[in-house]
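Hi there. Long-time user, first ticket. I'm pasting a complex I've been working with (about 390 residues overall). I'd like to know whether the download I got is complete or cut off, because the file seemed smaller than I expected. Thanks.
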Amino acid sequence: MKELEERIIAQARVYPDHIIRMDSFLDHQLDIGLLDRIGAEFFRIFSGRGINKIVTVEASGIAYACMTARYFDVPVVFAKKAKGDSIEGGLYQAETYSYSYNGGPTLLIAKERLTARDTVLVIDDLLAKGDTLHSLLEILSYAGAKVAGVGVVVEKGFQEGGRLLRQEGVDLHSLAIIDQAEERNIRFRHTSEGQ
Amino acid sequence: MKELEERIIAQARVYPDHIIRMDSFLDHQLDIGLLDRIGAEFFRIFSGRGINKIVTVEASGIAYACMTARYFDVPVVFAKKAKGDSIEGGLYQAETYSYSYNGGPTLLIAKERLTARDTVLVIDDLLAKGDTLHSLLEILSYAGAKVAGVGVVVEKGFQEGGRLLRQEGVDLHSLAIIDQAEERNIRFRHTSEGQ
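Hi, the file is complete. Here it is re-exported in full:
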């Protein structure tokens, strides 16, 4: 997505260890017009697949999921992250799907929110190692929900998450794939795959 | 907001200790059409005040802030919650406003996201004791930002947060104020104040 890449070039800040901060427009502070056009782009890519639900993870995926959901006119379900050892006050323990991939945060979705009748589009803002998405996809498989695709706003192409997910047959589309990130040099991947 | 109250009556579930779950349409699963109309309602209430930024707290305020921001066509800034003892990797320690009200979670906003030139509308989904909103308002005062108003989707009128904030002169509007919540009986407040 050209506008997204241009904004990243103009406003992203790269720190040591390939940390890319996009706090002035994509995270912490959100440019709502850009987010709306991102939602429209996900709709363009994934429409016509019978999607009846957008699924994401709190917190930074929520904005993108909502903007996308407006175009699809379907609900958004967001997985919550377990805080500490207790799962959401115990009240839902028997009624919740939960999974933690690779020692990452445990994700929780109440069972009544997802069933085998659902065809979902997964949306998230950032893909790096892919732990979060792997956890989410595991939960979706417990529920029996069909995954029509996965939309990511920014993929760090120099980390393994994207490669692993595509290898596993996930239909992953990232609106910008950063293959190289240095302080004065951000290089995007442009291929037919995932674009 | 009549539609909101009708949905709460129809779909909210009340548990012991006045816990009100709205997981099928306002939290965890979001009815995007309803959220859009909530955003429109906040715009109707607060437009014409020179608002240039919508401010909220992760995670559940984000969806409402985004839908509202679409109507105002202004950015959204969301405060983050400190995870454990370290503040966001230390990188921002000197550059962050932080505050914890009443022993609640420490909220963080990067200093460059808010200045004395900003006129903000604060949006949040739920108001009970008011700890989160008090923390947020404290941070906004550090930044010197003007607070044009506070919009809340659901206020638990039987808890003190709303009363305290109004007493402090905050221009607080809640789209639904629940004064009584029992298993088969939810009663809303209908006054000119805050509606």
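A couple of notes from our side: The CA atoms of residues 52 and 73 of chain A lie 8 Å apart. Chain A touches chain B through 34 residues (CB under 8 Å).
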